[in-house]
């Protein structure tokens, strides 16, 4: 089922999404990859403030290529989400409401998704050039020294994703295998 949501995403909208839903996100999301997550995790360990508010926000696991002339961002495909699994539960407990990436998540992340009424979305890997067309503005807001792994504020319009793990813990990667498995 196609759904349209605004970001930051409300608790109600997050809880209404189901594994398998096609979702189009419009609004403000943030990009952060491995190095930025590690730095945020270390900040939390040292009781320091994070560079972005987690409450109801969505983080896209992405490090873009350089922007072409006239474009706000280069190719913007998802990176493997499991590399953020060590850090995700802490951010979810601070109110992070959604994550966009590709691939499976750990049991600890799934439990944190359920505990916090959050959602894990997948973006299509290998489609970075197409996904970048849905990003209308990109601004580095933290950790500029990390280059492509800096935290960016992204303005998106109808950014296409699929719900993989919903707020109840339903996991599309598990249910799809059962549904389409042929013996």
Layout: helices, strands, pairs:
Layout: E1 2-7, H1 11-16, E2 22-31, H2 34-45, E3 58-60, H3 88-93, E4 98-101, H4 107-116, E5 119-122, H5 128-132, E6 135-142, E7 151-165, H6 172-180
Parallel strand pairs: 1-2, 2-3, 3-4, 4-5
Antiparallel strand pairs: 2-7, 5-7, 6-7
Keywords: Lyase
Domain Fe-S hydro-lyase tartrate dehydratase beta-type catalytic: 8-175
Protein name: Fumarate hydratase subunit beta
Structural write-up:
This protein is of the alpha/beta class and 183 residues long. The chain has one domain (15-131, 163-180): Fe-S hydro-lyase, tartrate dehydratase beta-type, catalytic domain (fumarase, Alpha-Beta Barrel), CATH 3.20.130.10. 26% of the residues lie in helices and 27% in strands. The protein has 6 helices and 7 strands, in the order βαβαβαβαβαββα. The chain has helices at residues 11-16, 34-45, 88-93, 107-116, 128-132, 172-180, and strands spanning 2-7, 22-31, 58-60, 98-101, 119-122, 135-142, 151-165. A 5-stranded mixed barrel has the order 2-3-4-5-7. It is globular, with a radius of gyration of 16 Å. The mean pLDDT is 93.
Question: What attributes does this structure have?
Answer:
single chain, five-stranded mixed β-barrel, globular, hydro-lyase activity, Fe-S_hydro-lyase_TtdB-typ_cat, lyase, Fe-S_hydroAse_TtdB_cat_sf
């Amino acid at each position: 089922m196609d759904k349209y949501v605004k970001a930051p995403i409300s608790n109600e909208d997050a809880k209404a999404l189901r594994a398998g839903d096609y979702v189009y996100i419009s609004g403000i999301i943030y990009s952060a990859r491995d190095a930025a997550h590690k730095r945020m995790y270390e900040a939390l360990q040292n009781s320091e403030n994070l560079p972005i508010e987690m409450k109801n926000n969505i983080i896209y696991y992405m490090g873009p290529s350089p922007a072409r002339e006239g474009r706000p961002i280069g190719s913007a495909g998802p990176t493997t989400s499991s590399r953020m699994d060590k850090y995700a539960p802490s951010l979810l407990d601070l109110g992070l409401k959604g994550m966009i990436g590709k691939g499976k998540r750990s049991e600890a992340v799934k439990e944190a998704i359920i505990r916090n009424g959050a959602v894990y979305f997948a973006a299509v890997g290998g489609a970075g050039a197409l996904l970048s067309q849905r990003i209308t503005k990109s601004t580095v807001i933290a950790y500029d020294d990390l280059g492509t792994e800096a935290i960016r504020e992204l303005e998106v319009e109808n950014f296409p994703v699929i719900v993989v793990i919903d707020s109840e813990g339903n996991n599309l990667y598990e249910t799809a295998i059962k549904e389409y498995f042929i013996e």
